[in-house]
Amino acid sequence: xxxxxxxxxxxxxxxxxxxxxxxxxxxxxxxxxxxxxxxxxxxxxxxxxxxxxxxxxxxxxxxxxxxxxxxxxxxxxxxxxxxxxxxxxxxxxxxxxxxxxxxxxxxxxxxxxxxxxxxxxxxxxxxxxxxxxxxxxxxxxxxxxxxxxxxxxxxxxxxxxxxxxxxxxxxxxxxxxxxxxxxxxxxxxxxxxxxxxxxxxxxxxxxxxxxxxxxxxxxxxxxxxxxxxxxxxxxxxxxxxxxxxxx
Length: 247
Known about the structure:
247 residues; alpha+beta; Aminopeptidase; eleven-stranded mixed β-sheet; 8 helices; 31% helix
């Protein structure tokens, strides 16, 4: 997928193609990787170019009776997950900037009604949080102590904020969360904040990553409005699933 940077494509290849590829037909690929963490012992990635990649630990492969050489479609694999009692958490859409859109973004100037936030903005940010619902705060995961935080203001009031944190220890990708107070939505605050914080991330050598649930139409609309492009759908084993856990 040459639309996206090498950092992004290499990151997902390393997660899904490192290890022993037990089946691949060019469209569907299954890999066994002993180095997966407990939280990631089964993962599935569907990319927008039509490919589906699955990876799992040797222990999970044994429990699902998967072995090298057997014919395996995506439907077969998902059926084995179901029969083995393995539930997935529920996929996230993954959005990134294409190389072209990145270049456009880097030429933009930041608008005056928004700026980077620091720990000196604690009172302003606390007021912002108190004006949002618990559900919105949980869904957005925007925190003042994250690696980077940007906010948009209306009449000196913080009405929209976005924050980022490094996604993986050795990968130059920063995961993004954004939240706009309900009564200030639809005014373009979120788009401006997302583009500003993403420009900052690029300038620091990071690729911005935007994730949202498949049923969050407003978040998908925002991603596209901010210039991001859909990369694919990513799913991991549910944290409540005990199948294959170490005893």
